[in-house]
Amino acid sequence: MSLDASICLYNLTLQKQSASINSCVGNFSGKKSQEIITATSNSLTVYKPDVDTGKLVNVLTTQIFGIIRSVANFKIAGAGKDYLAVTSDSGNLSILELDLPNGQFNALFNEPYHKSGIRRLSPGQELAVDPKGRAILATAVEKNKLCYVLNRDLENNLTISSPLEANRSKILTINTVGLDVGYENPLFATIEIDYSDYEYNEVTEYEKYLTYYELDLGLNHVVRKNSEKISPTSNLLLQVPGGNDGPSGVLICSQNMISYRGLEGEKVSINIPKLKNDQANVFIVSGVLHKMKNQFFFIVQSNNGDLFKVELLEDGSIAISYFDTIPLTTSLIILRSGFMYADTQYSSKAFYQFEKLGNENPFTSSSDEPIEELTFERTEELENLLLVDIQESLNPILDSKLVSDDAFTKIYAASGYKDSAQLKVLQYGLPINELVESDLPGVANKVWTTKLHKADQFDRYLVISFTDTTLVLSIGESVEEITDSGLALNEETIGVQQIGAHSIAQVHSNGVRNIKNGQVVSEWFPPAGIKIIVSSSTNRQIAVGLSNNELVYFEVDERDRLIEYGERKELHTRTVSLSLGDISEGRLRSPFLVVGCDDSTIRVLSVDPKSTLESLSLQALSSAPNDILTCTMNGQLFVNIGLENGVYVRTLLDERTGQLSDTRTKYLGNKPVVLSKVVVSGINVVLALSNKTWVVHETKNGAFKINSLLINPLKFGFIFNSEECTDGIVGIYKRNLIIFTIDDLVHDFNITSSELKTTPKNLLRYKESTIVAQNSSEASFIEKFDESLELVKSEQLAPNERIITSGVVHFQSKDASYVVVSVSKTVESSTEYYINTYDIDLNFKHATKIADAAYSIVEFQGKVLIGVGNHLRLVDIGLKQLLSKANSRIESVSQIVRIESQGNRVVIGDIRESVTFLIFKPNMNEFLPFADDVLPRHITSIKLLDYNTVIGGDKFGNLFVLRATEEASKVSDTNSTFLITQDKVLNGAPYKLSNICNFYIEDIPTSFSKGSFTIGGRDIVIYSGLQGTIGALIPLLTKSDIKFFHNLEKAMRTYKEDLLGRMNLMFRGYYQPVKNVIDGDLIETFNTLSDDLKIQIANELDKTPREVSKKIYEVRTMSI
């Protein structure tokens, strides 16, 4: 990788692409439950259905540094689990095993079969598996087929043979499936085209054949067993059960028809029902077989989204009936538990529950040439399925905008296709599930919940502390105020804790009260004139800090009595916070007391009986600690510190020595940070409260994460655990009390959406409004939405008009903003092009005819700049049309598709001639090109980073940064004559742009934005990809950081084996060598490595694994 310290970017994928290739279901974990694996081109996601809640739980997502082509599951006889077969651009057939306890896939085999890359002769475009798990057939688009024999060795381990070839020249393979033939020789069926007779002829329709390939296990040889002509529109094969479950054979799906072909020559077909009065051809795009105890059926989906139930009847006929209508899918999966997973093409993935099994009076046919046309009526609501869960998908993102406000940074994305089109808003943070919100009698300071007895399963009291008073509420079927709890209600409570077996301790400024069964058992008072200012407690311990700088420590005896330690610890500075850590399993007490002092230090004291209140370690901070919380995460003890200056600090506490290490920080806001421990999904999580509410947690692989919580800024929060709400959180803000849960710690973005009329073209922002231009073959719309995604105005264009692009322009001459829309207009048999102008409320003003299509519209110096073919046109608004002010022809480009501007400088992106820099000369009223790229690039999006630098993306998935040289920039601003007379270089501009960065993201970039997700964070580049990718490019500013991450990336590429055997450097440099971009996705997998491999890589860098993890954490939290 080329590395230049002048600029270096760190690439992170924030939201992985969601365009699925296909999905499969199996018993991958080795347990009785089924898991669903969904494959996109660069990731594998494992979902586990929760049959109790009807939800799909994301248990594992693995990023692949390669391009997945196909996946299939298989289970060999006698094995306790399913395995996953994967083909990719690595040229390997990969056999993966799911290791859920360790949260990873293990590669059992990576069998090379072809050179890397994706070619039509490369097997692996499709995978077909023998139902008994004995063989896999990998087929190429043309000619090649490889068959692998699967078996077990003496130790019951999976084995795979060398591939057996079944190649046929000039044969195209459309679809492949493994047939159910029991334990006879494995048999595969394919749809093929033999183009040898048509190679030099123009043919509109090729003949297709259903061809059978048999693996002879005795001879270890693959033979073409049989071939028969089938409909030339055939596109999909579905396996039919054999043996005791069915007649075996295959279903062939073709235009308007589904046919059955048996292995003994049986033939029967049936027409696919159509909507009444709709004569359009119908194709089946996906289908699934479901076997039950004594029967089986198919659910297939047409290209219109309609589901049909198909059955093979005992009398040899075939039956079909309308089932329901859902969005188009790439795969359908039916689970034994009565659920169906729809892996949709363009909208969110859907999880349905079967309520009925469909129409009891289906259409039937016993002929192979049915003539009866079947019709049905589509139902508006689902009849046989019930939608129980969705998994958000952004595919495809046509345009996006980054919008920052005082509360949260949001990404507005125009996503979807036709009926599934949506305007989506992505907020970087975790959503909450609000259960209760109620008013309080005053502004509360803190809130706690407590049990009455240690053995209680749920909390019994909700204690709310106000200034000088305390309110106690019962937790049960109803919430009622309690006055006989024994707590001092006329005091401001500092802390509440269930202690011992049956008691409660209340700490207030004037004492510590011990309560049992609602009665005050004892009360401890500080010396006269001295107040308690802070406290911390566990079930067996209480520590309080006094206003005279003394620490008092109590322990609870077997009779629930508070016993004060004989000596008090006097500090030389004021105590501002205390924390006793979690009590580890098998211990009676927490061994440490962490003390925060106003001299900006924390001290770790021992509370072991042999060394009570002895100082063990000290750590200096950048500000006074406002709050301290010691808790266990992933089996390690951490001290969480909230500082007065709004910085959150986390440091590791050694449980043997009490020493502090591995300190990490993040700026949360300008308010002092308050901390509290809560539980989410059974794991400890820290709430950090400042300007926003933050959640601190560790992922399954040990990565440290801080996410904002999408809720009003809380003043305090605490665990809430009741019969109706386990693992809940109770919080206070202003005069409100709220009870909520956090259901998802996995996804970084919370997505809300609003329906669009049809496919979006581009997205515009004006103040607090969002305007979306939409276009389809049927109609075009412009819609305006407010901040809450409510539709404000919808404007439909004329039936013969189609939107190309749009922009919001503030015209200086009118001192008003307008929506300017490029449209094509069909007039009789010709197409004309116009620029329509609307006011900001979408009222039509006028239309201006132009010579060619305009693919880019931007504001430029109070006017509108339009790219028309290879012309740049500057126009102003008039009363009846737009008025031309300047027109420049750019000889070196062919079709301008993107325009960016700053000052007098304009950057254009061409459909195939990359990027050109131009300067506008007002005295000449002309745009002069002065620098362009040396490489042809098919531009999809560009964004100016500064006056001389542009970032862009092309249609092959490449990101690049180009920069004008200092000489070119200086000449362009000062010397117009030189630009006109200077000789052109390579038929282009006088100067060439410097290529600063290159990187491959395996998605087509559709937009770039500059901004930050965090308060005070560094500006970064946010990009979106067509297939649903959201990514970030973080600039590395110091040479030491650049060198560190470059060396770490190099070590990761050397020592970390890729799951599918693809070389990371080749993948990221698919079309051009990687230059000045660090693969942050690869770097972040460091936390998933084994301890030995972490140590090996860290030693290469002269660092410890903790130091490496800290650096990885710091670069992410700079702006995210």
From TrEMBL:
Localization (cell): Nucleus
Domain RSE1/DDB1/CPSF1 second beta-propeller: start-end pairs: 433-742
Domain RSE1/DDB1/CPSF1 first beta-propeller intervals: 23-364
Gene Ontology biological process terms in this record: mRNA processing; RNA splicing
GO cellular component: spliceosomal complex
Keywords: mRNA processing, mRNA splicing, Nucleus, Spliceosome
Similarity section: Belongs to the DDB1 family.
Protein's name in the database: DNA damage-binding protein 1
Organism: Wickerhamomyces anomalus (strain ATCC 58044 / CBS 1984 / NCYC 433 / NRRL Y-366-8) (Yeast)
